[in-house]
Amino acid sequence: MRKIMTGIVAPFIAALIIQAAGCVALPSAEEKANILVVGYNVDSLRNYKAGRDFAAAGRYELAREHYLLSLAAANDQVLRETLAQELDSVDLMIKSLR
After folding, report:
1. Whole-number Å distance between alpha carbons of 6 and 13
2. Shortest CA distance to 48 belongs to which of 84, 93, 83, 92?
3. Any idea where the domains of the chain sit in the sequence?
4. Who's near 97: CB < 8 A, 6+ residues apart?
5. Over the stretch 44-61, which tens digit does the pLDDT of each residue have?
6. What's the CA gap between 54 and 62, in Å, rounded?
7. Span 8-31, pLDDT tens digits
8. Which pairs from 54-63 meet CB under 8 Å and 24+ separation?
9. 31-38: long-range pairs with CB below 8 Å, 24+
10. Could you tell me which of 57, 68, 80, 83 has the fewest CB atoms within 10 Å of its CB?
């Protein structure tokens, strides 16, 4: 009876040890295709997206604020130029609504 218990419990314990050690399956080719590596600052991109969302919703003051936050955190010249254009566009919208 003891040998049967050991035969049942041993694989279970081994599986727990492997799982606890962090051994996981490698990502599939489809999962690898969904990975995006970007050289931009994460906070800058997050604020840029928030600004775009606010601008699409017509909340131009909030969009302007998030574009400014994104511009402050931007570490790439192309992103800075894009943000400057977005900021100019939002400023024009704010002025036209006044």
Report:
1. 10
2. 83
3. 2-26, 42-97
4. 60
5. 999 999 999 999 999 999
6. 6
7. 666 666 655 655 555 556 667 666
8. 55/86, 55/89, 55/90, 55/93, 60/90, 60/93, 60/94, 60/97, 61/94, 63/90
9. none
10. 57
Count of beta carbons in the 10 Å neighbourhood of residue 59: 15
What does the alpha-carbon distance between residue 82 and residue 15 come to, in Å, rounded to a whole number? 51
- What confidence score (pLDDT) does residue 40 get? 80
Helical H segments across 1-98, by residue range = 2-20, 29-33, 42-56, 60-73, 77-97
Structure tokens at 68: 């400014």
Check residue 26 and give left, alpha or beta (phi > 0: left; psi -120 to 50: alpha): beta
